[in-house]
Write the structure tokens for this entry.
Amino acid sequence: MDRRRFLRGVSAAACMSAAGSVVRTAFAVDDVLPSGKINRVAVIGAGIVGASIAYNLSKRGCDVILLDKTGPAAQASGNSFAWINATYYDMPRSYFTLRSHSLNEYHRLAQDVDIPIHWGGSLEWYDSAVREKEVSDGVRRIQGWGAPTWIVDKKRVRELEPNLQIGSDRMIAWSSREGAVHPGDTTRALASRTLEYGGTAVFPATVTALRESSAGWLVETDVETFEVDLVVIAAGINANEIASMAGLATNLVKPATPGIIITTKPMPSVINAVAYTTDSHFHQLSDGRVILGEKAGPPATDQHLAYLTGHPNAYPSSELAMEHAERVIATAAKYVPEFAGAEIENVGVGWRPLPLDGLPTIGRPKSLPGIYLASMHSGVTLAPIVGHLAAMEILDGVSVDLLSDFRVERF
Ligand SMILES: Cc1cc2nc3c(=O)[nH]c(=O)nc-3n(C[C@H](O)[C@H](O)[C@H](O)COP(=O)(O)OP(=O)(O)OC[C@H]3O[C@@H](n4cnc5c(N)ncnc54)[C@H](O)[C@@H]3O)c2cc1C
């Protein structure tokens, strides 16, 4: 067994056990590769975006190497709220359309990858008149684009969510077609399926340099160097660093902001929709686990700032983690009292990859056609459509019009 195969075996085993997914033995490759074009691709980053691109490429028969300095879902994708939605009220229409396509793509994806998606819709309400006005204007705008989103009264909310307590007379927006996933499990399932389709994963492997070669690119890592036809950069908050290795001057992401994400152990079903409000957000997965978050960031004390410089994904001690988790759960229990006393499975800190203008950057830079960029917030929502379209652009040599507002050249 050579070194690469060994690494691949190790990685595959790690993916499978973490995802808890069933190893399938018979594969159907979607299409044959167009001859003489892109045959070998390195995907840098095994977050949900990189894993989805790698999955789509390997499903189409491309020789994919998925690289990550830690492993699947180690950064944002393991510590995300993971609401799949199209209800950003201030977004341009092209972004709404892309997100809507991704909601549909999740249904297609779930036929091939073992992803339990909880389709329970979403409810949003806020305690400020300014925010309510933004939401009501936004609801009208996206209704005009065909979104199944409405302002509903408390009677309707009671029918939808008998356990949800919204004390005041707030305006509530209901979106019926949205859902949520477990972000880490989904990422690991995509990475596992990539291997099942014949892809290679090398974890941990930190990419240290990118160099152009006669065949394409040399991807240097602390493990070994890979020669490929094309490199996908899906490195989340580290996108700028990797893009600059390729000689790309543009900043793709701005300084990341942290968010706490709590996952409980399975509990009896109490809520169906994703709930999002001023001081709390939560949803319950099909297996009974609840994922919760809060909008507030950490106070800007010197101690916090010093610790947060390294973008940690965990609290420095389990006591501190539990203290924060209990606060987040107590806030959510104002709305769903059954949450009080929930047992905690995990407390994570996620760092949001924030594109400069809030919109994703997807595609090959005109100056560097051997590079493919995939950098975005809302990567959990967007991963299925981005994976599918990226594979088309890379393997079929087309330029997908749906992505034309998200090219790096706009900066
Ligand atoms: C608190 C929080 C809540 C969120 N809520 C939502 C939500 O409700 N809905 C939604 O759609 N999105 C949400 N997001 C955003 C979403 O989680 C991210 O957009 C998405 O996870 C980004 O995925 P990614 O694959 O691009 O990046 P990541 O998951 O960060 O993956 C990047 C990977 O690149 C690897 N890497 C970096 N540098 C190197 C290197 N030199 N060599 C090798 N590997 C490297 C890292 O190890 C990492 O695994 C949320 C994010 C956070 C933090």
Remarks:
- Confidence is low (pLDDT under 50) at residues 1-29, 31-35.
